[in-house]
Amino acid sequence: MKNYYQKEIETAPREKILEIQNEKLRKQIRHVYDNVKYYRDLMDQKGVKPEDIRTVDDIKFLPFLSKADLRDAYPYGLLGTDLKNCVRIHSTSGTTGKRVVAFYTQNDIDIWEECCARAIVAAGGTAEDVCQVCYGYGLFTGGSGLHGGSHKVGCLTLPMSSGNTERQIQFMMDLGSTIICCTPSYAAYIGETLAEMGYKPEDNKLKAGIFGAEPWTEEMRRSIEKSLGIKAYDIYGLTETSGPGVSFECEEQTGMHINEDHFYAEIIDPDTGEVLPEGSKGELVFTALDKEAFPLIRYRTRDICTLSRKECSCGRTHVKMSKPMGRSDDMMIIRGVNVFPSQIETVLLKEGYTPNYQIVVDRERNNDTFDVYVELNPDQFSDKVSDIQNRERSLEAAMRTMLGIGPKMHLVAPKTITRSEGKAVRVIDRRKLHD
Ligand code: DLL
Known about the structure:
This protein is an alpha/beta fold. It has helices at residues 7-10, 14-35, 37-46, 67-72, 106-122, 141-153, 165-174, 184-196, 218-228, 341-350, 385-403; strands at 86-91, 101-105, 130-133, 156-159, 179-182, 208-212, 231-238, 243-249, 256-258, 263-268, 282-288, 299-305, 307-308, 320-321, 332-334, 337-339, 357-364, 367-375, 408-412, 427-429.
């Protein structure tokens, strides 16, 4: 028997979905034009009026929104409702200076949690399940999103948050967790720790895992499935769109169904902005059709992927996106935290160091390693090891404040970082995260 959380809409005929999208879009565009000055100005600049947008085919006339707009409008410039109607915020893990802050009304939270509930049910979740949520709780959307979804499904919810692996394992074993939600790298680490503690995959009661927030490969899926004895499902989302649950995998495991009654997806050429036909590889753009507090019109995610409308054996009719295959900007995701090289550069320059640096990211035993090598100025150079170590510790602290995670800092002698003849190679990512 196939399981759906909201069967009617999840399996609705294409025409029905289009009808819903068109109606919600017209309403949403009228609403942002009338109530959000930032959108009105963008639309006026492009010469588009709300009445020009009748169906999703007209969406191409609307301006794009980028992360830079979100920073410009920080914190309240994109609010679609009175602050008094908002009940929550979440935020991305640091971008240069200002973070992205997303607002939610109660209705936004309900819809978001329903999307996560669809993902949990697609992974086989029911009210009988024990769902262990080990995404981070707090400003990050992972914990709250899956937590809310788990409640909606009626699972016994274990709000573990991330970290403290031994305690995670103790609860998992003692309470018989059947579903686990966390980043794929943390899932792999839990699998490894279980084996080290002498457990075999069949010793736990887990049947499914819902993993996302960072890129992971099919090889990683197979290895997690083996080490935990589960079926591993992908889930995608971003803070700007509410959080996890924009799209999720079903049992076919061949891409993630986008919740099209709430999000309209386009694939564009990242250089020209041209909308590409189905199946093309390009940048994913989302329009949130019914978000109230933080409306999002044609938001450029910077994630590169493809869309497919091929019929799915699960019966869901919503379009599927492939795993993100990379990004059209230089953002890295390290231990689940979004990191831009420019943030690192900002700290270095502020602290009086050279802009000659190199970031090395790797993965050891399924954990990201994060090292930054920086050249000292000749006048900063010292023969005293303790001087250098003190400088490294203080830089690590400054980095942690900026990024939310601390890289291991290595101060090296002047002129030792290889100079490039073309673009500087700032980032060496050895993790091989994309197939
Ligand atoms: O990572 C929301 C989330 C939480 C998704 C838990 C899934 C599970 P942000 O911190 O704003 O939000 O980061 C969003 O993470 O633009 C992608 O580049 C990346 N990302 C998210 N899910 C996946 C995934 C959350 N399944 C950014 N595969 C996005 C690959 C992913 N990358």
